[in-house]
Amino acid sequence: TPAEAPKPPVKEIIRKTITGYVGFANLPNQWHRKATAKGFAFNLMVCGESGLGKTTLVNTLFAKSLEDQGVLPSKVDKGIGPEVPKTVEITNITANIEESGVRCRLTVVDTPGFGDYINNDLAWRPILDNVEKRFNDYLDAENAPTRTQLRNLETDKRIHALLYFIQPTGHSLKPIDIEVMKRLCDRVNLIPVIAKADTLTDDEVNTFKARVRADIEHHGIKTYKPEENDYDDEDTIMENREFMAKMPFAVVGSLTQIELPGGRRVRGRKYPWGVIEVDNEDHCDFVKLREMLVRTHMEELKDRTAQTLYESYRTEKLMAMGISQDASVFKEISPQAKLEEERQLHEAKLAKMENEMKLVFAQKVAEKEQKLRQSEEELYARHREMKEQLEKQKQEIEQKKIRIEAGTPTMEVKTGKRGKFSLGR
Ligand code: GDP
């Protein structure tokens, strides 16, 4: 009966959500672990006239770490005067800084102050030489048969950023500043800073900044600009904008702790009219500069050094050594240029084929001519031969004729079988 028919089984839908995850989101952690374990290196060069506070600023930047290690001689607060020691040669100071388990091998390269030269026209020379020598050493390490050295942090001595100190004159850039920055800007990430900004009022700083920016633009000096990428998030875009708005950074350096009326202790410079705080963003751009150098843009500065500045040095150097690359590699590939190139190639091919055909034709003609000449000669030869024979026969007949006319029998007795006469029969 229909009542006994089996019911279709109820299908239960099993819903599952993926609880685990594939795992590549962990990649940043891997990088982080690797980078912290290995540590990283950063090479900073400071450059500018003597007495502009280069040493003081570097000390202020990496304050505790460098001083604790006693590597940077502090020249702070000795007052400006002849007794201030001047940087007369390029010096290298390296310190290992550690912060929350992250190790940084910081190298600060101090360059000679320009005031120390009698002729300042070539003040840029030793600095550029030094920067290029570092590129060259790296190139040598790259070209060495074993390149394990490259993994060593100490091998990379390339300058990742150059702080150029501008005297706070309040007017405009000096010719020497323009010359030096022009020479260096293709080889380093150039970051101009206005030294001792505490000697100018806020208004003066702003006007001076505008002048310096205009001068830099006018002379085609390429200062470091953060790269803009499509994938940048809003924070990065803001950071980059702020960075560009502050350029050139007006900085104040000091390691002196000053006690403010409220009891707060700050690093700064004390004046009768008040205290300029180094670490206060309203007082100077020191904090912005440090943030950018250390926190936000260090990696980008290093990338640009390796991928743009060093690469162009490397290409120039290798080309100068006569190592060339297929020129087409450097050509910008536009569709039109490509078509034109293809057309030229095709034409060249046609011309080559035509030439080959002409050659083959000329060769065939020459061969034919040679054959014709040969058969002509043969014909001539045969003709000559026949003519000679005929001549001979003619002579013989003539002789016969003479003999017949003279009456002598011409019958010759031959001893051949048929020609034998049997006279006796
Ligand atoms: P360097 O020759 O460029 O390395 O200059 P130093 O760092 O030796 O500084 C020279 C002098 O300038 C020292 O007496 C410092 O105290 C002073 N100085 C350094 N930084 C500043 C600053 O930001 N403002 C002022 N007013 N003086 C500074």
Automatic annotation (TrEMBL):
Annotated GO molecular function terms are: GTP binding
GO (cellular component) term, any one: mitotic septin complex
Give the similarity note: Belongs to the TRAFAC class TrmE-Era-EngA-EngB-Septin-like GTPase superfamily. Septin GTPase family.
Give the source's domain of life in one word.
Answer: Eukaryota
Query: Quaternary structure?
Result: Component of the septin complex composed of two copies of each spn1, spn2, spn3 and spn4.
Q: Where in the cell is it found?
A: Cytoplasm, Cell cortex
Mind listing the UniProt keywords for this protein, alphabetically? Cell cycle, Cell division, Coiled coil, GTP-binding, Nucleotide-binding
> What's the protein here called?
Septin-type G domain-containing protein
Report the residue ranges that make up the Septin-type G domain in this protein. 38-320
GO BP term (any one): mitotic cytokinesis
- Organism, per UniProt? Saitoella complicata (strain BCRC 22490 / CBS 7301 / JCM 7358 / NBRC 10748 / NRRL Y-17804)
Query: Where do the coiled-coil regions begin and end?
Result: 336-407
